Request: fold
Amino acid sequence: MWLFFVLINSLLAFVYAQLPDSNAWISSGPDSASASYCGATGNCLNQTVPKFAKGTVSVFYMQVITSNSADPTKNKIYTAAFYPRVDEYAELVVPMATGQWMQQLTDASTSVRVQMVMLIDNQLFKSGTIAFTGIEMSVVCVPARTLVINLNNGKPFLNGGMTWSKTSCALNACACIENICASDCNSPNMVLTVRIGWSGTDANGAALSSLGSDIWHFQNAV
Reply:
């Protein structure tokens, strides 16, 4: 088991949030999220790369969406920008988005979900949203999920280009949120985390393989 965690730590490339105005978050209402993507400078949509090649820098936005079923005026969307390299197994972490931060946003009527947005060729490709908090006896938080980027000659597939890695709570007596085990939000080192794994082929036809380093592949093998 010790060797397993050493191996995982050696594979992860840590990528921390850095927006153009140096703030970790830009907060917006549900109707103005698109305007917040580029931060204060508003020029990130000038990204003109038509296809992704292995090793080049990509642009992603993590949207943390809080929805209050009892009071929609409390709905919020927080956006952070990341710049992982294509085909690096990257861990996207917002240091201030701790479990305690998510717990403060969450009660019986409020949920925290995440959507990832990828910028390529002046277009925004969006993943589906997925839960990062849930209510059992108390608020519980998901420590991390993996986003799979599937490219065909450097461009994302229109269907299935951005999907969340399949997970399972089978054989685990845990608080299960959308097929993944969650933990107490106050657990040590609980920070909102999205991992990025790549598959398919890049702009030059080279195979993308970093998804093979996903922690779920190792957990299923142990």
The first strand starts at residue 13 and ends at 16. The mean pLDDT is 77.
